[in-house]
Amino acid sequence: MAVLHQTDRRAASPDWTIPQGFERYTEADHRTWITLYDRQAEILPGRACEAYLHGLKALDLHGQGIPNFDRLNEKLFALTGWQIMAVPGLVPDAVFFEHLANRRFPAANFIRRPEELDYLEEPDIFHDVFGHVPMLSDPVFADYMQAYGRGGLRALSLGRLHNLARLYWYTVEFGLLETPEGLRIYGAGIVSSRTESLFALVSPSPNRIGFDLERVMRTPYRIDDFQQVYFVVPSLQDLLDVTTKTDFGPLYAKLMNASDVGIAEIEQGDKVFTRGTQAYAESGGRLCPSALESQTLGFQIPGHDMKA
User: Fold this and answer.
1) What is the overall mean pLDDT for the chain?
2) What is the pLDDT of residue 136?
3) Nearest-angstrom CA–CA distance, 290 and 268
4) What residue spans define the domains of the chain?
């Protein structure tokens, strides 16, 4: 939800969509997808929610290379009526919301470079497709995303986009789900990240707090590192219900006079799943912890020797 680089603007149509250009992907591009896919396939079972894992299988997203949008759309549309639209990168907010409101998900058509496997500043095709699209195959979450798009258009007209953006961030990108088996991931920013898939669930550093719409919309976020707080929804249906049954007009009016909550703060009335130590953020953060940092944070990254 941001403006593209100038060179990308010339390539985009009025709705910012472009051909995927599947035939232009190189062998190295497909290898990058395979590497990323294999890493996540190893750690997501038992960590990602069932809706995500079911979607991954139903859409036949696999580790054999970058998926072809035409083939993927056939399966996705049959399940929930959604379509993936290739774009050259981030798009303006109004365009983004218009696509979501009409069950179209803008997905970048480029893939990160091999040296950017663990972090890149702009979402690529792996984040957008592997991270987001499996959840769009779930009927309840698909309805939530469409409702969010419609709400985004209203937020723009009321000048409250920064509040609504926080809802997207803490649900669609970095949401956790409460299940009888424990907390599970549904946010795309987590499921597409090897290190945050572990950090979000098992590190003692971040707060994990029960979802409350107003609370979420008063909480800022950071885009450059692991989150200091994750919000936990009791179910995807609850998330949809609170979004579709809330009159956001009075809520925005209330938020105009409400102060933000500190990103690491716990308020009276919060349902606290984990009162985090904030050790990671206080130590300087900056993603991809080393083995030594992993000891401090309380989780081990596969492939690192904890005795190192």
Assistant:
1) 90
2) 99
3) 35
4) 6-297
